Amino acid sequence: MFEYAPAPESRSVVDLKPSYGLFIDGAFVDPTDGDSFKSINPASEEVLAEIAEAGAPDVERAVRAARKAYDKVWGPMPGRDRAKYLYRIARLIQERSRELAVLESLDNGKPIKESRDVDLPLVAAHFFYYAGWADKLEHAGFGSNPRSIGVAAQVIPWNFPLLMLAWKIAPALAAGNTVVLKPAETTSLTALLFAEICQQADLPPGVVNIVTGAGDTGRALVEHPGVDKVAFTGSTDVGRAIARSVAGTRKKLTLELGGKAANIVFDDAPIDQAVEGIVNGIFFNQGHVCCAGSRLLVQENVADRVLESLKRRMAQLRVGDPLDKNTDVGAINSAAQLERIRELSDAGTAEGAERWSPPCELPERGFWFAPTIFTGVTQAHRIAREEIFGPVLSVLTFRTPAEAVEKANNTPYGLSAGIWTDKGSRILWMADRLRAGVVWANTFNKFDPTSPFGGYKESGYGREGGRHGLEAYLNV
Amino acid sequence: MTATTTSARSELSELGRSETALRTFLHGLPGVDQVGAEQRAAQLGTRSIKTTAKAQAIDLAIRMVDLTTLEGADTPGKVRALAAKALRPDPADPSCPHVGAVCVYPAMVPYVAEVLRNSGVHLASVATAFPSGQAPLEIKLADTRAAVAAGADEIDMVINRGAFLAGRYKEVYDEIVATKEASGDAHLKVILETGELATYDNVRRASWLAMLAGGDFIKTSTGKVPVAATLPVTLVMLEAVRDFREATGRQVGVKPAGGIKTTKDAIKYLVMVNETVGTDWLDPDWFRFGASSLLNDLLMQRTKLTTGTYSGPDYFTLD
């Protein structure tokens, strides 16, 4: 006893069309050369829809539409009027949040309880938050008359499709810019539903444009001479290429790249809550989180105890149908990503780390990877250095606070870190020394629109969220 | 049982000998982060339990109910009626299981015992100067012996919260040991009155203290103070019984009591048991609900599941 009966969320709230065009100048249009690709449900490999692939001429149209809207409508519009549109969008997101959450889970593979309880509330909160800034830009601390930049080219990843869209679009519009956004090719559907919301909100045509496609579309957009600002969230490799292509132009650039965060557990930590934090740090969203706590640094004298608790807790994780309300861990977003996770995990085994997963049955179809931990990992292992972007945790140990700081910082990345201890003074001491954009204390993976987010080193530059997030979209 | 467990057990049994050893041990337990514990409890509360799982859960919850009346106005007639209901919660449906126990004041035990004889329904009685516990030890022990002599096979005792909060752990420990002894073969449920302990750290310490002293069950509340059982408090107690069994090999039961009124709430507790300590505790021998009004809601939901329609409150007995 206690097998939970299936509790699937209904798909009927989502009205999927067989095919989607590009969203340019306020309307859905066909791509110039008619190319398209399929978007599939990673949990079942079922084809969800055909999506248009934007080529260079389509990007050209989108940038031109954004430019026109910037010059004629959105740029000159008073902040208080821009705020009204943003508030309207935020409210529509709330009204349609069930539909958006179900579609997000279908398209991305993430559990409905996360898209419903985490993603969507945050998406709406970002629009509400930046709506509040739209008429108060002169009070943001960037001078008395901060000006918008112009047309922003935004390229977002597949791990939080709607949330990343909100992080990009909300501050850009609040600051008076217009945007051309390219969602990831595996998760375009909710961005297209967001386009419908823009129409529903009567947003002036061209203020938000969405071009779908893969890397080539993204490159055409980023390299387009008509854009004034580039914002990218994704892998460090692509980020580097973008930085190279933007170098020497007048375009402003912010990059939000990978991470290999340390989650540091001291011997006086509240163990049960620390274990929850470790689980949330790495298995939330299948580990598809750039700030995931993928390196557990645990003080050696409590390592056995923490690991035992962690394994027991991991055995309770329910892996399976993302639309089941009781699912904790959903599907890996794509075959390619699954392959990458497998390759790096195999490297962990080959290099001598000890691999463990709880017994769990994975569905036959779709892309699945059981929650996995590696113990006996050292800084010399690939799995301790490279971002895996999957439900795979590497466990290392340390003896002293100084050693914890040293090991935590010994990475090319620096996006986030976590500290678990009952000692407040140690939290402050550690936070001062950790080279990471976000340091969580006795919690992990907490997000809030008022709080800036961004990285050190290869995790990128610029900040999103909060007052700081406006700076990237203003000429200051 | 492994050798380490045996030695850990003997080490732990030595703790009660000195105030210092007890204090050092209890304050050395891992802390509880309030925000984290409450968040986890809330998360477990969002599980969606439907159809067959719900039916199973309802029957289990009924078997776990300690059907309780603890009023100054209790009479033999009232407790007899309650005991009759404990045996046949739903007269219209013989497939409905009986509850776990009936819980009454010591003076009412004989009347309940007559009804429950050999039925499999346990008879619990609150002793030790319930609910305040503010009486001399001798009186508390006499209270306990009287309840057992009258036929109670489960004793619900309250700890001395004043002594606990003042840090006199050994005093609390000794009282539990003495009450356990006075209970004889009856199962001892130790009420921590978590609403008065104020912090989760205290709840964890009191849980361990009660288990070290020999309690068979740890119970949240008397139901007589404003804050009774909550999900986070029960979570901390479940973690304590889990860790205690790991350290000693001995399993201790958990009983949230007070304020659990609906099937929805009861199922949240069962989910928490399932995902914190596992199926070993999903049994009336190891988990109980101290409740008076929960049963009727369980019965109503049970009928809804079998017939597809809700019946009004008049279709279920008042007692």
From TrEMBL, chain A:
Enzyme Commission number, as recorded: 1.2.1.3
Active site as annotated: E256
Pfam families reported for this sequence: Aldedh (PF00171)
Swiss-Prot/TrEMBL keywords: Oxidoreductase
Occurrences of domain Aldehyde dehydrogenase (ranges): 29-476
SUPFAM superfamilies in the record: ALDH-like (SSF53720)
InterPro entries: Ald_DH/histidinol_DH, Ald_DH_C, Ald_DH_CS_GLU, Ald_DH_N, Aldehyde_DH_dom
CDD domains (UniProt xref): ALDH_F16
Keyword Oxidoreductase appears in the UniProt entry: yes
Family: Belongs to the aldehyde dehydrogenase family.
Record protein name field: Aldehyde dehydrogenase (NAD+)
Lineage of the species this protein comes from: Bacteria, Bacillati, Actinomycetota, Actinomycetes, Micromonosporales
From TrEMBL, chain B:
Reaction(s) the record says it catalyses: 2-deoxy-D-ribose 5-phosphate = D-glyceraldehyde 3-phosphate + acetaldehyde
Enzyme class: lyase
Enzyme Commission number, as recorded: 4.1.2.4
GO terms for cellular component: cytoplasm
Keywords attached to this entry: Lyase, Schiff base
GO biological process entries: carbohydrate catabolic process; deoxyribonucleotide catabolic process
Cleavable signal peptide: none
Pathway(s) the chain acts in: Carbohydrate degradation; 2-deoxy-D-ribose 1-phosphate degradation; D-glyceraldehyde 3-phosphate and acetaldehyde from 2-deoxy-alpha-D-ribose 1-phosphate: step 2/2
GO MF annotation terms: deoxyribose-phosphate aldolase activity
Record protein name field: Deoxyribose-phosphate aldolase
